[in-house]
Amino acid sequence: MRPFTYSRASTVDEAIRMISQDQQAKFLGGGTNLIDLMKMGVEAPRHVG
Amino acid sequence: MRCTLNINGTDHPLLLDPRVTLLDLLREHLKLSGTKKGCDHGQCGACTVLMDGKRFNSCLALAVVQQGRRITTIEGLATGEQLHPMQAAFLEQDGFQCGYCTPGQICSAVAMLDEVRAGSPSFVTAVKAQQPVDLSEHEIRERMSGNLCRCGAYPNIVRAVQQAWRKEKA
After folding, report:
1. CA atoms lying within 13 Å on the CB side of residue A1
2. What is the pLDDT of residues B76-112, one digit of tens each?
3. Residue A5: strand, helix, or coil
4. Coil vs helix vs strand at B82
5. B2-76 — its CATH code?
6. pLDDT for the residue B125
7. Residue B3 forms beta bridges with which residues?
8. Of B29, B71, B97, B161, which one has the greatest count of Cβ atoms within 10 A?
9. Under 8 Å CB-to-CB from A1, ≥6 apart: which residues?
10. Packing angle, helices B154-169 and B102-117, rounded to 10
């Protein structure tokens, strides 16, 4: 899996700021889809929140 | 990244790469090897643990994200030498052959009975309001379908779950 940074937004505004500031940022959600794709190298976000 | 995870009632202060999955944290960092790595892709259920009492595939969970949740593994189900009723039922009904999927099966079954108690519907039976779920073999097989057993010990796994359910209701 490619390295990434992780942060946890505490408000909706903060989450939107996080995702709009970096085109390579992804919402994790439950993670069961994204983490699987990241393990396979299909997804390689720079930041996850 | 610094975080503190509560696992089996103990707080663990940790310094982790965000890429570490909860499964790898349990097995490689904390040496809690009861939780098994099967497919590592969320398809087999061998890595099932409880998060705030709900079942979850730990291979698809990032460890650092789990701060603030209560994580329970197979090691945390028993009380001292007293087995959890589901563990005792698996032993009594011989609900395994090789045992590799068993920790995941047991954790999953514990949370599954909670779901049934809460009136959660399944594909097999639509739950009508105020009506308790009839935990038939078909129902158990459906509700446990996220946990695979390559030995095919399903008949006795179903019996074990039924025993734990009956004992609880008795």
Report:
1. 21
2. 999 999 999 999 999 999 999 999 999 999 999 999 9
3. strand
4. strand
5. 3.10.20.30
6. 75
7. B14
8. B161
9. A38, A39, A41, B19
10. 40
| Token code pair at residue B167 | 């004992």
Asked if residue B73 lies in contact with residue B111, where contact means CB atoms within 8 angstroms, the answer is: no
Question: Looking at beta carbons, which residues of chain A come within 8 Å of B62?
Answer: 6, 28, 31, 35, 48
Q: Which member of B41, B57, B62 has the closest CB to residue A6?
A: B62
Residues of chain B with CATH 1.10.150.120: 85-169
CA A28 to chain B, closest CA, distance in angstroms equals 10
**Could you give the C-alpha distances from B167 to B16, B72, B88, B111, in angstroms and in order?**
42, 22, 11, 16
Chain B residues within 8 A of A8 when measuring between CB atoms: 65
Contacts of A3 in chain B (CB under 8 A): 17-19
CATH topology of domain B85-169: DNA polymerase; domain 1 (1.10.150)
In chain B, which residues have their Cβ closer than 8 Å to the Cβ of A31? 60-62, 65
Residues of chain B with CATH 3.10.20.30: 2-76
Facing B57 at nearest CB: one of A1, A28, A32? A32
Task: Answer yes or no: is pLDDT of B39 > 70.
Answer: yes
Q: Which residue of A has its CA nearest to B61?
A: A31
CA distance A20 to chain B (A): 21
Please give the pLDDT value at position B52. 98
